[in-house]
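Write out the bound-state structure for manganese (II) ion.
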Amino acid sequence: MILDQNTLHTHNDAGIKLHQQQLSHIRSVTDNTDAIIEKLRAFQVAIPSWALGTGGTRFGRFSGAGEPGSLEEKIADVGLLHALNRSSGAISLHIPWDIPSDAAAIRQLAADHGLRFDAVNSNTFQDQPGQQHSYKFGSLQHTDKAVRKQAIEHNIEVIRHGVELGSDSLTVWLSDGSSFPGQLSFRKAFSRTLESLEEIYAALPDNWKVFVEYKAFEPNFYSMTVGDWGQSLLFANKLGPKAYTLVDLGHHLPNANIEQIVALLLQEGKLGGFHFNDSKYGDDDLTVGSINPYQLFLIFQELVDGMDARGMNHARDLGWMIDASHNIKDPLEDLLQSVEAIQLAYAQALLVDSVALEHARNNNDVAQAQEILQDAYRTDVRALVAEARLQDGGALQPLRLFREAGIRKQLIKQRGERSVATGL
Ligand code: RM4
Ligand code: MN
Ligand code: MN
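---
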């Protein structure tokens, strides 16, 4: 469905007065608000095609209603999000969960919604019906060359789909590893994986990037072959200039200092992509900013600082994507919350007085350095984010409008109570 423009305008008209007051307040206490709004407007976060349905845990899945049953409907859902917040202008596909049968038509449909295709994702962590070799003991690391070959060919196939859709990056996340001591030679598993990745790398078009995503544990619980940023960086460095590390916020051991990881990867020119989510324990895939928004801010502060140090474009030079799963919330509401949390953290990071911070650091003024960061973090920047949306034709309060307009009810009417999206 398409967001009705009259409904949108009624919503915005109703909230505009309060918004103007809040905006003029933050303008009166902050200098560079126009520059921040401009950056917010440019910043787009990709929505993965597998996040539009209800996820589950290994204990059960409680399907929502009106879920998108086809790729076309998933694109329509991302289009709706984008119409509401003007910040979800990209979609990321997981192959084979979402194989476009008519790539040109799908590309056109996405363009009609103002969407482009972000990184394409391969899947060698599940067996598909009719697949010749099993990935039970790994894919790119497998001891059997035939299994590795199958996994390599799948990744090359994913690149082909991506080219047809106008994507320019491939994300490889491997579940490869071992569950028990003795099961695997770490060194040989690494070398086999590298060789396999080299073949995939060789198939990348000139303007493409490959992102090597790491994860500390799960589904393997003793070792993961791309288990941390060190391993990912080793692969990326050995592969070459088109290979980068991808950081997924939920893929670290508890209490890891992700902001430091991000800072160093950026300094090395090897941070390529980012998967946003939040977690209390592990790869919980919760709504961004729902558990630890301060950490998200600290990460953004390093992202902004590190990108500026290299003269990078915040909006274009890294791949930004949400990688979350919704077990009990409406996926679209959850995604609206995640995008908003990302924008708030980004806006707060842009507020940091980096000159004063540098000065405090050089003088070892620890208390002042903390004050500077927390001053930005404690600033209410919601009006800046809302203004950026407004200027781009979005809603003042996307989640509220989603409810007021009864969007889920309409989707249920179109798609039925029992439609189930493909994905995890
Ligand atoms: C993994 C990882 C990947 C995602 C899959 C579904 O844990 O985060 O990025 O594609 O889950
Ligand atoms: Mn991920
Ligand atoms: Mn994950």
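---
The pocket of manganese (II) ion (ligand 3) is lined by residues 248, 250-251, 283, 323 (CB under 6 Å).
Residues 149 and 196 are 8 Å apart (CA to CA).
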